[in-house]
Amino acid sequence: MTLAPATHPLEVGPDGFLRDGRPHLLLSGALHYFRVHPAQWADRLAKAAALGLNTVETYVPWNLHAPRRGEFRTDGACDLGGFLDAVAAAGLDAVVRPGPYICAEWDNGGLPVWLTRSGVRVRTDDAGYLEAVDEFLAAVYDVVRPRQADRGGPVVLVQVENEYGAYPTGTDATARAAHLRHLVDVTRSAGITVPLTTVDQPTDEMLAAGTLPDLLTTGSFGGRAAERLETLRRHQPDGPLVCSEFWIGWFDHWGSHHGTTSVAEATAELEAMLSRSAGVNVYMFHGGTNFGFTNGANDKGTYQPTITSYDYDALLDEAGRPTAKYLAFRDVLSRYAPAPPPALDTAPAAPAPVLRSRFSAARPLTGLPPGPELPWTGTEPPVLDDLEIGSGEVVRIAWVSGTSCGSAGPTLLEVGEVRDRVTVLLDGVRLGTLFREHHDRTLVLPAHPAGARVDLLVEDAGRVNYGDRLGETKGIVGPLLVAGEPLRDAVVRPVDHEGLPALVVPGDGTLDRLVGPVLAAAELQVDDPADLFLDTASWGRGVAWFNGFALGRYWRHGPQRSLYVPGPVVRAGRNVVTVLEFDGAPDAVVATLPDLALGHTEA
Question: Quick one: which H or E segment has residue 422?
Fold first, then answer.
């Protein structure tokens, strides 16, 4: 059954939402358009309707839409308007959460690097910050405004800021309220007429600090629903009760385990909310993938980058297939939705094709055509933020040892702080990597003659998306010392990751192994285009592309052992897999798996 798009706005009534004067229960699921290939939006939305949902929610990542100030991309994965139109075509409502800060385990919490490197105080009344925010929100609302429910579109709610009560701005209540009021005024002046909301974890402190009296306050939590709703009701005596982030899973960090949650416990919490007529937004309905270099990170003393998969143990898995949790939620929702959900195809998905090939061409990273040489002045290397390059970019710092830097014996390379990885090579041979998560600061350079070349490959592995280290700079921070003396005569060159797949093409032979850092390519023959799962278990650490589409990072550290390849990027016949391998692979094989391999769990 396909419903017509909403033609009546959602109203905030004394006890709940109203639509056309009648009670309306918000049954929503989170689906981030930027974590799903656009050609797959319709499939995921149809499965949201088949679940029994009436609404889909999404963030809007500022840094993806505006990687440079003054632009607002709406192509490909940035087509917010196209996504909202697809939501309407599926007969669903939409909740839009433009931030400006979104967290979301997304690089820099969605804030552009050009903004955070400018020195503004983010999420405050800093004039430079607000000027940039106003530009961004104006562009977002140009897309959202004509797609509001009172104009025949799907958008029924818009969120102001994001868990602002948890942000340690160091400002008093008056300043925080003024900041929120500014965002409300910008939103209303842009023609947004639907109800506005805020969200915070339901503690007294956060709820008090993160909203305004005229906004609908909602909660974010994953358990103890009855208690959390009571707290929310104390702070909002009337109006709808809404859990706008019902956490039914969790995200994973490299080196940890794959997080899962109990189906029984999650469905019990859902029942507890719906039985109290509380609206809910399931986070995540479908998590998708941190394609390319978009993953965020956390740092509470130890840096923990988020993995490429954003499966989240959601109702649809990373490949968009219904899970046992999906079926259990569908059963609960069927008792509260006003009409039965559309029919659902419950036939198990066929295993993905299992394919195998070998890498047949490789080029050492240090042997690739040099990028533009950037100036280095002073006694410290430039941080990546100052180079105006994209997130996830690799920067190469190289120097040739002079007479004074040649060493009859081992010497020490020292850095102030690594953010996030520095791979060191001597005359093209990898010596080791300094890892931020290991708090590494030193590496021994073996004896080498004058004229030897030293390369440092500096990686941004994902910007922190939550907490005090939001917006921090990347690269080598502080001094770079060789034998105790500051290095001053190095060349700095960015590595253009978007152009890397074109620099190596599959050849006629085969390789036995990959010795990193190396760019390698393989040909993979596919009979019929379909979703694929690249097997990364035998690879070391790096980034993979499929037909030039950036799939994301892989690492033997785990937990994930597969990379999801969306069917729309797969071609019948010849396909090209490209990897930038930093460490090495003892067997230069390219293979696919019949299913996702997301790693071990705690159980």
Answer: strand 421-426
DSSP H helices in 7-122: 41-51, 62-65, 80-89, 113-116
In the 8-state DSSP scheme, what is residue 315?
S
Q: Indicate the residue type of 483.
A: A
DSSP structural state of residue 170: -
Distance of CA 95 to the CA centre of its chain: 19
Is 245 annotated as catalytic? yes
Please tell me the distance from the alpha carbon of residue 508 to that of residue 523, in angstroms, as a whole number: 10
Q: Which residue among the candidates 57, 161, 163, 437 is catalytic per the annotation? A: 163
As given in the structure block, the two tokens for residue 15 are: 């006890």
Which position has the token pair 């006003």?
338
The DSSP bridge pattern shows strands 93-97 and 303-305 to be unpaired
Q: Where does 236-384 have alpha helices with state H?
A: 263-274, 324-333
Reduce the DSSP state of residue 563 to 3 states and report it.
Answer: strand
Collect all residues with Cβ–Cβ distance below 8 Å to 372 and sequence separation of at least 6. 493, 494
Residue that wins the pLDDT comparison between 135 and 493: 135
| Cβ pair 383, 542 in contact under 8 A | no
Q: Is the pTM of this model over 0.85?
A: yes
Q: Which of 57, 105, 161, 245 is catalytic?
A: 245
pLDDT in tens, 439-495: 999 999 999 888 899 999 999 999 999 999 999 999 999 999 999 999 878 889 998
161 annotated active-site: no
Q: From CA 235, how far away is CA 258, in angstroms rounded?
A: 36
Neighbours of 153 (CB within 10 A): 23
8 in Cβ contact with 147 (< 8 Å)? no
- By CB atoms closer than 10 A (0-12, 13-18, 19+), residue 225 is buried
